[in-house]
User: What shape does this take?
Amino acid sequence: MLRRDFLRYLFKGLSLLTLGEGLKKIIWPISVNAALPPNRWLFLVDTYKCLGCGFCVQACKLENEIPVQANVSRTWVERYVVTPEGTLTDSPKEGREGFINNRVELAPGRYQNIPKEKIKKGFFVPKLCNQCEKPPCVQVCPVGATYKTGEGITLIDRKWCIGCGYCIMACPYGMRFFHPQYHVADKCNFCYHRIHKGIKPACVLACPTGARNIGNLRDPEDQVKKIIISQRVGILKGEYGTKPQVYYLGLSEEVR
Amino acid sequence: MVLEEIWTTKELFVYPNEYIYWSVQIVMYPFMTGLVAGAFVLSSLYHLWGIKQLREMAKFSLVFSFALLIVAPVPLLFHLMRPERNFYVFLTPHFTSAIASFGIVLFLYGSVVASEIWFVYRKYLVESSRKLKNLINKTLGQKIKYGLLTLLTLGAFDLSEAALRKDEKAIKILAGVGVPIACFLHGYAGFIFGSVKANALWMTPLMPVIFIMSAIVSGVALCMLTYIVIMEYKKFQSKKNQPFSPYFARNEIKGVEIQVVKITSKYLLVFLTFSLSLELLDLVFRGYTAVKSWDILRHVIYGKDFFNIFFLQYTLGSIVPFILLLIPGLTIRRAIMALLLVLFGVFMMRWNVVIGGQSFSLSFAGFMHYHLPLIPQDLATFKEGLSGALVIGGLPFFLFWLLSRIFPVFEGKEPL
Amino acid sequence: MYFLRPLMVFLGLAGLILVIRIILVPADFGIHEQGYLYGWYRKSNEQEWVNLAIKYQGRGYCQDCHGEPYKSILSSPHRGIECENCHGPAGDHPTNPLKLKKNTGRDLCLRCHSYLAYPTSKRSEIKGIDAEKHNPSGACASCHDAHKASKPG
Assistant: This one.
């Protein structure tokens, strides 16, 4: 008797729930054709064109109020010098003063000069926040201080960040840092304040060779989009599953 | 200069924004929560599983667990760059982050331990409250004590047989519920590290389990150590007061003490075995599979940190105390040495995970060196330096002493 | 009867936190476009970032008042370099800052013109010097005009 009653109640309950869910879908359908955000940002870096001048790093720091002399930056330039014995990499002062000699910095104060004949390849790789589609940094924020906007930019709420540093540890690319004055997390946001006014990010503006370019997936005429879909491009650290939105031309296997 | 540059030096290619952001306080935090979990599990061995020989230890470790719990968030407060915003984790928790569950788990676990302590001490609270009530001219201290004790009774003055039996049942239920929560309290700390895919050393599903096992080891060791210290003190006291406190006869104390220590050390060895096996398993797997990060990890584990890992953590911190505790005829002196080494080993494990994981760059082509600030020069080097760590190390003992003035931790007369 | 009293105490504390939460959490804090995983935040923060002041104006901003060097550099090999790269961000110039700097230090020019023989990089295609050998103690501007990017004379 008891079992039958239980089963009867169970059946009734489940039917009601299903009916309720069904009604919900009929009355408030999730509109499939809801307006997509007008912008969806991408970035393209051409490492063949990068001169290592470092103007982008300087421009970024000045535009985004990061103290220039502080050894942190929202963007930086790495140098790779490939010799038969191996590859040497450095990024002295994040590249903000450029690369003005051939001495690779092994540690602060320790340099290595590489004779010209040994250099098989040499190139510069500018790096910035990849605005990942699946950002591990956002996943680990305990208070919701960092987030992805509808347009795909990951921002940080300076008024809400508690400074735990979990997002800094979680970024596989090392893009995040603590702002030296505000003592909250900080990172590149594609110059959010500039792109929303229709002008280019500071680093894109400053680049003399056009090695840096920002693109918009929603713009049918977008040049960056055209290059990405028609040329051989690479991304950084794809194996982490972050789905980065910064694409590279001329990415080489030595690039860290 | 960036704050973290004070204690970080870089070598070879390290990304510009990389520094040692998680320093000594993040080593202290899992160490403290580990002690909390371990002390609670020890207390539950008596209350839940009825292991009679641990009765002396049970009350003591329960109160100690609570004292440790109050201290556990302090390393986090010292670490946060914006400590005044610490409560935001309670306001807008983002549960996709392991750290967000800190709020829930702390609150839940705190409730369970506090409730269990309440049930264990309810009889004492009621009796003391009644005794104080009957005193005619109370001193100020006695008035405060009376007020506090009565408040703590929560109005439950029933001391009948049935009520006391229900108390026992409640204690058993709470001890049972508390064990998985204690495991979660420390397991989530392991999850914080194990789930960071960006860090090649931390990323392993074994991390939460390793953390829990070594947590229990550390908690049991700390309780045993403090127990021994207190029993030695009582022996010393009874030597002075022989005619006045016959209960605390020296030989009696000695006999009980060594029995309790022997039994508890067996449980310590079990968890120590688990802990060591898991860590070695992780190491063997890494070397065998040799993924991309193995090159740099090898340099860290077998090169830079070899002394810290193999000598300090494994040999001194695990194998030596293992042998010391296994040799038949355990003496108090040998037990003390083994327990201190165990605690040191667990601390080194936390150190090697947290600092070791930041010893190499995300580029896998460079290293970072951590220089613990020894002498505080400003607030930052105090908070994230040796002095801050020592303050946190000492705080639980002070709190425990405070709590033991309200809740007596040993059978018999007045509190400590 | 009294066994649930500790539970009542802690439920009370939890309730208190929930009430305090209603007061302290901003109204626009919630789940936004990207869902709970990536979109848990305070919406008004987006506008706060949009409101940040713009410092780099781009060379079009300089054209009206500084026509000479503007035209000169555009017809020189330096046409890719923004005015503000060497002179600093314009901001609200001339209101604020009143003057922009004329940086005549060597290090500015060496960023590109310290020759680095790097195959596969455009850097090796830029005419450059060995900084230790070519006029090591003097300013580049004493012989070269940056807006003309010409050899001396």
User: Anything to note?
Assistant: Chain C touches chain A through 46 residues (CB under 8 Å). Strands of chain C lie at 29-31, 40-42.
